[in-house]
Amino acid sequence: MEKDVDILETNAEGYERIVEFGAWTVANINYEARYDENNFYRVERHIKTDEVFILTEGEATLIIGEKLERVPMEKGKIYNVKKAVWHHIFLTRDAKVLVIENSDTCTENTDYWDI
User: What is the pLDDT of residues 19-57, one digit of tens each?
Assistant: First the structure.
């Protein structure tokens, strides 16, 4: 069932929703202060669903797992962060990353860990 959502009204800085369908969102992540390594203080995990990332421009690094492993992203490669895995992303100012995720994430199914 398609959501009745005004995508432009729900976009946050650095996170631009492109498509909403059912419980899912395809969005473009652009540079914003929270994606800068110098401002890194939090990782998150989605308890019920995976999240997929695809780098299309610039450079990006995924931060994965409890050991905060750094995974430099390659353009066009699909990175699937499994449900319940801690993660974050660092972006260069020219980076663009497509993200596909469950848009019903909320405090009940997303955890945050301040580093």
Answer: 888 888 899 999 999 999 999 999 999 988 999 999 999
According to DSSP, the residues that pair with 90 across neighbouring strands are 61
Classify residue 62 by its DSSP letter.
Answer: E
Q: Are 95 and 55 in contact (CB under 8 A)?
A: yes
pTM for the full predicted model: 0.85
Q: How far is the C-alpha of 15 from the C-alpha of 37, rounded, in Å?
A: 17
As given in the structure block, the two tokens for residue 99 are 């993200």
* Closest CA relative to residue 87, chosen from 50, 29, 43: 43
| Of the options 2.40.320.10, 3.40.50.2000, 3.30.70.100, 2.60.120.10, the CATH number for the domain spanning 7-114 | 2.60.120.10
Residue 21 CB neighbours (<10 A)? 12
